[in-house]
Amino acid sequence: xxxxxxxxxxxxxxxxxxxxxxxxxxxxxxxxxxxxxxxxxxxxxxxxxxxxxxxxxxxxxxxxxxxxxxxxxxxxxxxxxxxxxxxxxxxxxxxxxxxxxxxxxxxxxxxxxxxxxxxxxxxxxxxxxxxxxxxxxxxxxxxxxxxxxxxxxxxxxxxxxxxxxxxxxxx
Length: 171
What we know:
Helices cover 50% and strands 12% of the residues. By secondary structure, it is of the alpha+beta class. 22% of the residues are buried. The model has no long low-confidence stretch (mean pLDDT 90).
């Protein structure tokens, strides 16, 4: 029986959850890379035709080279039919949101939690402004954010990295 695989073609086709799984492995093998990022069982990797395996590895290696702080910062995105928006005004962030966000951004293992603080469903839009759901940190929302596109996570990280780097210069 022939099995098919889907090889991601860009960073945005990799989920945060997949990247977190990859980072849990100290030195992932090529087979683990293909298994995790192509969403196939390890045994199925071994059954791939050599040409398909080699192509998958080549494409995935090129994508991983794009994982850096050059990803574009995204304020809003659609995921599974829901419009998500970043906290619209960071000056108005609550103490609880800020505390959780700072704590979660420190470690890739908790990055989905950080994203659940930062990005929430948009509840109202008026011209170019929007408002998002109140932060309550539900497990369901955390699980949804684990499946968000990696490029959005990297863009948010890049934004906060630039903010913390440039803010002291302005002060």
